[in-house]
Amino acid sequence: MTLREMTVEDLDQVMELERDLFPVPWTREGYFTFLIRQDTMFLAVEEKGEILAYCGVLMVLDEGDVLNVAVKRDRQREGIGRFLMESLIRLAGEQGVTTLHLEVRKSNETAIRLYERTGFARDGIRRNYYTDPAEDAVLMTAKF
Ligand SMILES: CC(C)(COP(=O)(O)OP(=O)(O)OC[C@H]1O[C@@H](n2cnc3c(N)ncnc32)[C@H](O)[C@@H]1OP(=O)(O)O)[C@@H](O)C(=O)NCCC(=O)NCCS
Fold first, then answer.
1. Whose CA is nearest to atom 48 of ligand 1?
2. Structural domain boundaries of the chain?
3. Mutation choice for ligand 1 from 76, 80, 107, CB with most ligand atoms inside 8 A
4. Phi then psi for 72, rounded to 5 degrees?
5. Is CATH 3.40.50.300 the right assignment for the domain spanning 2-101?
6. Is the pTM higher than 0.90?
7. Does the C-beta of 111 come closer than 6 Å to ligand 1?
8. Which of 6, 27, 135, 137 could potentially form a cystine with 44 if both were Cys, beta carbons 3.0 to 4.6 Å apart?
């Protein structure tokens, strides 16, 4: 298993995972636009040419917004999500990021636990932030 930066060549596989994992997946164009920006970092976990997981962050000065975190369905609960988040925190830190923010569906207990284990604390609710189905977002922040 190796960790590396995501590239445009990964987008076929990423889109497949995205459509499987999220009720409202990002589009390929959305990924492309964010991937080529200088103020983003997208990481991918790969095994034998297959993308198992990915995440991304948008960075402005010393603050970052975690954009997405995803682990292939049949490889969840192996600690890959934790490895990915810890790597993101370390690599964003190397670029000067000391505070990270994210939002997550209120019902997504696995993700919320993962974020809490990696240093995030809840600091707000955004009502009806998500659609399909409509749901509140839990806002979380970590300072490193
Ligand atoms: C949320 C998500 C990223 C977590 O990824 P993951 O790789 O499963 O995360 P981890 O394996 O590090 O931890 C998840 C759980 O597995 C458990 N686990 C980890 N390794 C384990 C092992 N070897 N054996 C048994 N359980 C294990 C963890 O303790 C944790 O348990 P918990 O749910 O009781 O807290 C993943 O479920 C996912 O992609 N979900 C769909 C997309 C999504 O919701 N993304 C977040 C949007 S904000």
1. 104
2. 2-101
3. 76
4. -45, 135
5. no
6. yes
7. yes
8. 6
